[in-house]
Design brief:
This protein has 12 helices and 25 strands. The chain is an alpha/beta fold and about 500 residues long. The strands form 6 sheets. An 8-stranded mixed beta sheet has the order 1-2-4-3-5-9-7-8, with helices on both faces. Strands 18, 19, 20, 21 and 25 form a 5-stranded parallel beta sheet that branches. The protein has a 4-stranded mixed beta sheet with strand order 15-12-11-16, with no helix packed on it. Strand 22 and strand 23 form a beta hairpin. The longest helix is centred in the first third of the chain and has 28 residues. The protein starts with a helix and ends with a strand.
Length: about 500
């Protein structure tokens, strides 16, 4: 009889796992059906969300309430759905330039408003009431910056509550007395899973609620849900999950909301190769958050072993956009072998709707413990400075008519253009544009400098690095490139 009970228990567990797997796979495979089409890039503003919020205000499935106002007077809205006794509170964009989960929230709304997944949705909404505050820092979002209009980090305002946004977050949490809280953020794309070359595409934390990092039932439940979410992400971004250090930060909202009795889960969206606008990471947020909510509704997370949380690799920060390894660098008559790590730094345009890159060398020397989204082993290659093309071009159109790849192969990385419009911020071509009288500084590989140089193997120029982008000159493939620089 005892053996029969064990067999039945194992069968039930396997059945539940298979059922959950099917739901997760279906969520991933059907995602494009629910992806909110009006949100397709990171730089979104309060005004972009208002038509969507108004749509749900008129929808009987949802309850929409204005729960606060930002410093500049923008409405903070709470959108709720469900009738269950377990209250789940999700807030996003506490930092104005962290928008990945905000977009995923509206994808989730589209799913709940659809006729699909009815059995799963009914199970969720009968057990849980879901509450979403999708843009906590609209003033920061307006100028695509981390901090609010007061210039403070809202996530360090849980004690003093100086900001109206922080006051709103505290008031809503307290009024709901939420059982679970999802604190949704973006992190630097340069985080990696510890001791691997893989980016930390998603990172998690069950924040500590005291300096001793004690684990009570509430924090333990958050850890178990994180372990479950990690298992989901591993299916689609294997090895690309990190875990934040859990040192207690007494000013932080996550730590305090955990302390106030809500099982709090921090989700940070990092980097993913080729996903500059974080649309694949948005999809992973959608799938993992919905799967986690389903696990909360069914209470499947309770079966998860707490010790699995510590097995998630810690976050590290050892990624470059481009890493050149073992390259020969001639200096003052001698040859040295260097690794060079460089990042493409975003510069916002005036309206904060788009950006251009101004890249920098971040480090050089022995970078053997660092990794790159793109890495070139340049053993046997030699760094060579680029030259200025000897002819003055009359316009940008004249440059567009030239064979840029041939110019690079001939050793030119700068072209003089007589009439560069003042409104033009960056070169759309993989070569720098310079003004008629601009003098290119003496070449040097140096931290803080723009990474622009050529690589030679023997007598042949084989690669160009222009504004931190690597161009293989032996290939005719389309160059993956956003912009070079303009120096007037």
């Amino acid at each position: 009889m005892k053996i029969q009970i064990i067999v039945l228990f194992l069968f039930a567990n396997l059945f539940c796992s298979a059922q959950q797997k099917d739901v997760t796979t279906l969520l991933y495979d059907t995602y494009e059906t629910y992806k909110e089409p009006s949100l397709r890039k990171r730089r979104i503003k309060h005004s972009d969300l208002q038509p969507l919020i108004e749509k749900y205000r008129k929808n009987d499935k949802f309850k929409v309430n204005r729960v606060g106002t930002s410093i500049e007077g923008r409405a903070l809205s709470l959108i709720s759905i469900g009738e269950g006794g377990t209250h789940v509170f999700l807030w996003s964009q506490m930092h104005g330039d962290e928008t990945t989960a905000t977009q995923a929230i509206f994808d989730i709304f589209n799913l709940f408003d659809s006729p699909d997944f009815e059995a799963e949705k009914q199970e969720i909404l009968a057990s849980c009431t879901l509450h979403f505050l999708p843009m906590l820092n609209p003033d920061g979002a307006e100028v695509f910056q981390r901090r609010n209009r007061l210039g403070i980090d809202i996530n360090r305002d849980a004690l003093r509550l100086q900001s109206p946004e922080g006051q709103t977050l505290k008031r809503v949490r307290d009024s709901l007395n939420a059982d679970f809280g999802f604190n949704l953020h973006d992190q630097s794309t340069y985080y990696n899973a510890e001791r691997t070359e893989k980016p930390a595409t998603i990172s998690y934390l069950a924040p500590a609620y005291n300096y001793e990092k004690d684990i009570n039932e509430k924090r333990g439940n958050a850890m178990k849900v994180i372990v479950f979410m990690n298992s989901i992400i591993q299916k689609y971004a294997a090895g690309q999950v990190g875990r934040y250090n859990d040192d207690f930060e007494p000013r932080a909202f996550g730590d305090n909301i955990q302390k106030w009795g809500t099982s709090t889960i921090l989700i940070e969206s990092g980097g993913y190769l080729g996903d500059v606008e974080k649309q694949e990471i948005r999809k992973l947020n959608y799938v993992s958050i919905l799967s986690a909510i389903y696990s909360i509704a069914t209470e499947n997370y309770k079966k998860i072993a707490l010790g699995e949380y510590e097995k998630i690799p810690e976050n590290d920060r050892k990624l470059f956009d481009l890493k050149i390894e073992n390259v020969t660098y001639p200096l003052l008559g001698k040859d040295y072998v260097l690794d060079i790590g460089m990042n493409r730094l975003e510069v916002d345009k005036e309206d904060h709707d788009d950006f251009w890159y101004s890249s920098r060398i971040l480090d050089q020397g022995d970078l053997s413990t660092y990794y790159g989204y793109e890495t070139l082993d340049a053993t046997g290659y030699r760094v060579t400075p680029g030259k200025v093309y000897p002819k003055l071009l009359s316009s940008i159109d004249a440059l567009a008519a030239m064979d840029i790849r041939s110019l690079l192969k001939s050793g030119y990385t700068y072209v003089r253009v007589e009439n560069i419009p003042s409104a033009k911020l960056a070169s759309p071509f993989p070569i720098h544009m310079i003004g008629k009288r601009y003098e290119v500084p003496e070449f040097s590989i140096e931290v803080g400098f723009n990474p622009t140089f050529l690589l030679k193997k023997g007598e042949d120029i084989t690669h160009a690095v222009i504004n931190g982008f690597l161009i293989d000159l032996s290939s005719d493939k389309k160059i993956n490139f956003k912009n070079a620089m303009i120096y007037r």
